[in-house]
Amino acid sequence: MAAYDYLADWFEILNDDCDYPAWSQYFIDGLRALHAGRRGLELGCGSGAFCRALSRAGYEMDGADISPRMLAKAEELARAEGRKIGYFLTDAAAMRAPAKYDFILSPNDCFNYVPCGKLAGAFRRVYSALEPGGIFWLDVSSEYKLCRKVADTVCADDREDVTYLSFNRREGDKVVMDVTLFVKGEDGRFTRCDETHVQYIHTEEEILSALLEAKFSPIASEGHLGEKKEGSDRLNVICRRP
């Protein structure tokens, strides 16, 4: 099955150790410091955790993702909170946006799913969806994380109702993750679900080169939650449409 067809229902549960409140506040504080405006898009929104957090902070949010199952989960969770968030289906590599935005935030690996050769074209689509002066903030798994901590490993997470296994291997400029979920049903029996994820390894230099080719003006690059880049699991690159 395609990436996130099964994982969508469990994504936020299995990522409950990543501290979404602190991570969201990092983005909120950064956007405020940049005077980014109020209307935003989360590109690669998944189940919409950051959309909901920014909505709670007073931003007018839309969310976009390539996975219909993730979007369905995002809509469900937004309704449960009474949040008015518009969601639409699109591929980050060839995005079609229904509006112009003050900022586009693309957190938590969205552009790791885009091959390096398609980054500049994807960034040009983002550029076209921003108002002049708009902010583009992308957050990817770093080269360090994918090469040193993910590639050629097995990841496991065993919960009461679900067990997650990911068998990871590096193939050139990408890491292929064969994911297996064992999900507990109402009768107590477990169902096996399999899907494959492919994440591309992007260096900071490759990302910056593609952003410059798309005519963005870089502002900053930093590690997770603003930490130093060296040895960080994440790379944040922040830029502006002139």
Summarize the structure.
This protein has seven helices and eleven strands.
Q: What's the alpha carbon Rg, rounded to whole Å?
A: 17 Å
CATH homologous superfamily grouping of the largest domain: Vaccinia Virus protein VP39
- Proportion of β residues? 25-35%
Order of helices and strands: HHEHEHEEHEHEEEEHEE
CATH uppermost class of the largest domain: Alpha Beta
* Main sheet: strand order: 3-2-1-4-5-11-10
- Structure summary, number of beta strands: 11
- Distance, first to last CA: 40 Å
Tell me, what's the shape?
globular
State the share of residues found in helices, binned by percent.
Answer: 25-40%
How is this structure best described in words?
It is a single chain. The protein is globular and about 55 Å long. It has 7 helices and 11 strands. The mean pLDDT is 97. It is an alpha/beta fold and 242 residues long. The relative contact order is 0.16. Helix content is 28%, strand content 34%. The longest helix has 14 residues, at 20-33. Helix 2 (20-33) packs across helix 3 and helix 5 (119-128) crosses helix 7 (204-213). It has helices spanning 11-14, 20-33, 49-56, 68-81, 119-128, 143-150, 204-213, and strands at 39-43, 60-65, 86-89, 101-106, 130-141, 154-158, 162-171, 174-184, 190-200, 217-222, 234-240. Strand 4, helix 5 and strand 5 (130-141) form a beta-alpha-beta unit. The strands form 2 sheets. Strands 3-2-1-4-5-11-10 form a 7-stranded mixed β-sheet, sandwiched between helices. It folds into 2 domains: 7-144 and 202-240, Vaccinia Virus protein VP39 (Rossmann fold, 3-Layer(aba) Sandwich); 148-199, S-adenosyl-L-methionine-dependent methyltransferases (N-terminal domain of TfIIb, Single Sheet).
